[in-house]
Each structure stands twice: as structure tokens, then as C-alpha cells.
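Hi everyone, sorry if this is the wrong subforum. Our group has a chain we'd like a structural model of before ordering constructs, and none of us has done structure prediction before. Sequence below.
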Amino acid sequence: MSKGNILAVGTFVGTSKGFGFVELHENNGADDIFIPPHFVCGALHGDEVEVRLESDPRSEMAKPQGKLVRKSRRGNKPPAPKTEEPNKRQMGRITQIIKRGAFLGTFFTEGTQSYVKPMENKIPYFFAVPPKSRNRFNLADGHRVLFSVDKKSRPEDEQVSCFITEVLGHMNDPGVDVLTLVRQAGIPYEWPQEVLDEVKKVPKEVEEEAKENRADLRDWLICTIDGDDTKDIDDAISLTKTPAGLLQLGVHIADVTHYVAENAPLDKEALHRGTSVYLADRVIPMLPHELSSGICSLFPEVDRLAMSCIMTVDDGGQVVEYEIKPTLIRSKRRWTYDEVENLLADAEKGNAPDDEWLTLFTRLNRLRAVLYEKRRARGALDFDLPEAKIRVDESGKPISIEPYARNRATGMIEECMILCNETIATHCLTKKMSCVFRTHEPPNAMKLAQLNETTRNYGVSVPPVANKPKVLQKVLAAVAGTPAAYAVSNAILRALPQAHYTPDNPTHYGLASEAYCHFTSPIRRYADLQTHRILKRLGDLNFKQRLPAVCAQASRTERAAEALEREVSQMKKVQFMEGFEGNEFTGIVSGITPWGIFIMLPNTVEGMVPIEAIKKSGLRYDKTRKCYVSRRNRPALTPGTELTVKLLHADAEERRITFGF
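Answer:
Right subforum, don't worry. Here is the predicted structure as C-alpha cells:
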């Protein structure tokens, strides 16, 4: 398309410097369009815009006029930010703001004037609040507000005003901090009335007619194993020996589709949400609690409807036969991961009762080891990266942060669920059925080249092609147990594309699986619910028409949920550290950049030592070796280096932790 013509429609991605990019809705592999500050034309981060290519971004440059209230210098004309054209990136001009949503911000006053500071740092402006809005909502400094900005407003206006539409609460009120991030992320958390009306009809117990035409497994030794704070239990497990001496593994999953009919209000809302969101102080469920932690949840000693995948597994962990069927189960006990791990540990010391539970978990532990070794042998990638377990009090204040403990019990469930998901995906392929596959592609050549730049500093090379995961598995093995392990693992994760859902690509690179899908969590993931529906042949049998949209929505909502979970986790970590300013901590260098180093503490809290503090220590950044070196040019700060640092500042508003020496 020639320069000067309308190129396309996309989403504007702003920056704190004033320039931005347009992510095209239909990019067909094209790069984002770079928008210099003078061609932004009033667009704000998140706007849906129309963009036109420009041959020279410096042409027709408008001189700044007026006094836009800008974050960096309120009331003064800001200096033009220094921006450079990214290599080989096309430039454009915003010609129209098509659609603009509401924004979230913090109300504050300065003298007699009132402003809102957007929560999104990619919006580099403060917005004036008219006195009428301030009085109408009785606003005080620190109120979190929802506001809108007229699409016709432009940075060259004398002052950009906003319109307050809702007050979420004060920033110091319990829960408002997380609620603000939830609203900012656009995650739905309130139920439409039609969903609430449908939920009233959901039974509290399994009705007798629902038990018909199901395999009755209520006399099987079935149990659940979960975390001690789990509310929605969608998987249960059983394991026995067959007369031939093989293992019969049963994975029993809540039959959510029995209660959620396709295209009913419940189903539409579940698809809209796509997934449950697990935050430090709350869960935003995909399904109302009457289902997610009620009739669908596999509580002990109550009848529950399930979809069971019963697999006969040989000594090498191969599934030699299987059966997938609707069942009626009755879990005998709810175990936690720690309880199972403690039982196995006691058994090793001869202190555990030799009963049916010890027999079950001993067999499961042996199967875990076999299945893990089978996956490892085919090249599956195992990232042993720390995850944080954050505990908060009733007001949402973090009271403890520690690494999430993995043990043999967590491994048992993980391996059994992976095997079950592979069996379901293989079944769909073999039967030529539709399926919501969990797809993970190999990294491309550019990402591998970037990865090699990192790993070669640790004496490990990455080949230009890695179509099989064994290539990267060897890289992980080469640095295992070394100070570089964390940095290399993170670098490999960044090189890999995100896993997502597709209707036609069954392979999963990271798991080294030829066929993979999600079946085991229909309470919290719509992809699993859809898979159940396909297996039961429920609803629209022409699934091929429906699946592309379902896969796209499930992928999109998963990414949004993960991003929100990271934001909330980081905020709670910063809040936890606020009371420790001035204290010293020992941590390791977890990342190195030209502008500073990241330090991770044993509790997974991560912060930065800025470049200014490093320079004062007489060190400089070596861009070739990607580390900080001494005056004698010897590496002094490399990934994994243990350091004692002082906490200088914990800024919960910016979600930033600053360390110093």
C-alpha cells in the first residue's frame, strides 16, 4: 500500500515518552507501526485507531501549543521527547480515534486545581477534573476513579479535562488496590442478572435422574489432592492394579457440562470470562460459586458427576488401553499436597500405617517417577523457577511471602493430569474429532539467535534451529545447579512463544508431546469445558465452526488473567516490603541490564539496583559480556552472584522496589 493511504485499523500502544505504536488488528506478519509524538494526534493507550503510513515522520511537524497537563511537568510545556525510528519499522500518523474506553486513575489536588493521574503509565498525562465532578462525587485525594476523555481532545489543547463516571473507593480502603487492577485489566467480576437467575435453578445435590446412564464408581478408592486453600476441586484420582499386573489409573474430572448448557447465559458468561483468575486476596471464578465451589466441586463423601478417563498403563508409562465415560463418583477423602508428602516421608521412616492410602500413594509416587522420566527422555522442558505463595490478612495486607513448595505429591498430580490430557488429545485425533488443542510451537530463528547471545556468556551455545525441545533441554542441563541456571531458564522462556489454543495443531513443544489438550480443569478453564462437550457430543455438533472463536477467546482471556495475576503479585510483594525500608537483605543477581541489576531475595521478591549505585561502586557495564566489570575488566556482577543489598524504597503505587549497596 502506498504511503499516504489509509493503512489499517489497530490498537494504539502508548509510552511514557509520548510516542507510541499501532498494533494492527490484521497484521499478516507485519510489524507494528511507529507513531512519533507529533503524529499521535490525541490518541491514548488502548484506543482503537485508524493509521496512515507516512514517508517522513518529520514532515508537517506541528509546533506544540498550549499547556497539556503532563505527568512529568504539570502546567509547563514538556520538552519534545527524544525518539528514534526503530530499525526497519514503518511510521504512521493517527488519522482517527475510532473507539475509546474508560480509564482508571487516582484523584489528587494541587492548590485549587483537581487532577486525575492515570493508573496506566503508558498514558503520560494528568487530566483536569471540573469542579462539578469533584463536588458531585465528593472526591478526596487518593480516590480511585473511573473516567473518560473526549475523543476530540488533543494534546495541543490548553488543558485536557476528563469526566468522572465512577468512584471505586479510596486507595487505602481494603481491597481497592486489587479492585483497581482488576478494573484496569478489564476482567469481568460481577455476574449479569440473567446468570444469577439461571444459577438459582442449579441443584445443591446431585439429582437421582442425573445418576442414570453413568458408570457407578462410588465404591472405588477415589480421592482428591490439592493445596490447602483450594476452593474449586475439579480433579480426583484412583490407581489400582489389574489382574495382569499393570496399573489402572483413573482421572476423574467434574462434569461441568451437565450444569452448563451450550449458549445458555451461564455458558456465554463462562466463555466471556474464559478462565478463573487467582489473585492474592481473591478468586474471580469463571463460574458462579454455586457451581465452582458447590455442586461441581468434588468434595469428599458426596455424590458427584464426573467425566472419567480410565487408563491402563504399562511399566514404561505407556497407555495401552483407555476408556472415557460419564461416571458417578464419591471421593473418599480430600488430601492436601503436604499431607501426602508427609505420609510418604513417615513411611520411609517406618512411622506410617500400612493401609490402603499408603498403598495408593506409594504406587502413585512410582508412577510419577516413571511418567516424568518418559517425558524427560523425549525432551520435555522442565523449568524449576520459583513461584511465590502470598498470604494476606482479612484486609488484604500481605503477611507472608515464600516460594511455592513443590514435592512428590504435586508431581503425582501434574504427571497424571499431563498423561490424561495427552490421552484425550490422542483420542480426538484418532477418532478424527474436533478438539481444543493446547498448542505450543518451537522458537523461531531470531529468538534462538537472541538466546544464544545470552547463553554463550556461560559457555553454552544454542544452535540456529531447535525444532525438537531436546536441544533446549541440553542447554538447561548444562547450567543446572550453577549460578547461571535462573538467568538461562528465564532467557529460554522468553525465547519460546506462548502456548495457546487452536482447533488444528495438537503438538506441544515444551511438553515434547505430539498431541495435547486441556481436559482436567473445566471448572476454571473454558477450553476444558468445551473439550468435555465435544467428547459427550453435546450441543452444536458442527464444532469446527465454533472452535476458532472459542480458541481465540480462551487464549486471549488466559493472557489477560496471567498479566493481572503478575501485576497483583508484584503489588503485594512491594506492599510487604514497605515496612522493611533501610533493612539489609541477601539475594542473588537475577537479571542484568545496562540500566541496573535485578536482585531476587529468597522469598521471590525482586527489585532493582539502579545504574547510578553500581557506578559509585566503580563498576561499568560490558555490553559484549552482558555483565558488570571491575576497573581491571574482570566480571564482578553476573547472574547468580550473591549480594547483600539495602532496601531503599518500596513504591506500591508504581509497583517498584529499589535496592542499593
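For your construct planning: The chain has a mean pLDDT of 90. The radius of gyration is 27 Å.
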